[in-house]
What we know:
Blueprint: E1 5-8, H1 13-24, E2 29-33, H2 36-44, E3 54-58, H3 63-70, E4 75-78, H4 83-97, E5 100-103, H5 108-124, E6 128-130, H6 135-147, E7 155-162, H7 168-177, E8 183-186, E9 189-192, E10 199-201, E11 210-212, H8 220-224, E12 232-239, H9 242-259, H10 264-278, E13 292-301, E14 304-313, H11 315-330, E15 339-340, H12 343-347, H13 349-358, E16 366-370
Parallel strand pairs: 1-2, 1-4, 2-3, 4-5, 5-6, 6-15, 7-12
Antiparallel strand pairs: 7-13, 8-9, 10-11, 13-14, 14-16
Amino acid sequence: MTKPVVVYGASGYTGRLVCEYLREYHVPFIAAGRDKARIQAVLDKVPGIETVEHEVVEVDHEVGALTELFSGAQVVSNMVGPFVKYGPEVVEASLAAGCHYLDTTGEQDWMLAAQENWGDKFASQGLLLGPGIAQMYTTGEIAANICLETPGLDTLDILVLWKGFPTYASTQTIFTILKADWHYLEQNKLVKWDPLTTFEVNVPGQHESALALPWGGTSHPVWFRNDPRVANVKVAGGVFDRAVMQGVVEAVKMVETQIKTLPADQQESALADVAASVQASMPPRENPRINTSLDSVYATGPLGRAHCVIYGNSNYKQTGALQAYAAYSLLQQPPRRAGLASACQAFGHRELLGVLRSFGLVLEPVVTVHH
């Protein structure tokens, strides 16, 4: 078969959803990972999967084997996180095979490393290096760009909240992030957060406030760092369930006091143990009546204000749809920006909003502008 897209890590929660949405776009794909039987079992449960050309391939997680697998493809959608740990081999192999690279990371340290090590190499080949194409970053980025359609605003105050529970891999990633430095953007410079920072946030559309965290700093400060419209970016994120968030706050404290004091070689496994104790299993498939999402952005300038809220549901399905559309688009035309770029920089924020709307995943944005 022709294999325009490779979904690597297809047996995971998000990987399966990417395959589902590739089917809706009629894009043939290879579902790859370390365990063929497991991937097959996951795909067998996808309704209608037999209507799209696809193949299941087992592959070792090393550059040579991955390069061979990716050769002849055009897009790699990488779902194998934590990316700072498992991403380098996949990026190297994508570059060697001449493929665009996409992932769903929220790891700021991974994005910065990817930009530094491979950004120029991808750009010189006209290839997209697109980490962080996912609900938790892209939907908020769409809201930010809608605000920035009003000129004269330079400061973004972003809130990302969702109802549900992170998947096993997301939880592992969240705990990996705790080891790294987190940054916000102030006057175009990355500034470190105090890792114990928490926010009591006002949630648009409800009377109750919520507890949020810098959530590793998120992707937005990296994406907007080189955007002439924007000088300052701060992001707060979390789940609506306060008890879960209080648990995360306690875990962050424990990491700061007990784990960061361990020798470096012991920190990794200690973190993995904590993560597994928080979430060791796959959460159920999302229910749109339960799993709602909210992305709110206040954009301000000296004499202007805009506010955009995007209410949606099923944040992992939003991620699956965004990944599949990114692949579908790249098969037909070059990205708007090569090298390290966000989804909006590569595909356009209005286009991506249209994708989420077309699948019934978000409401029409609620926008107010004063200037």
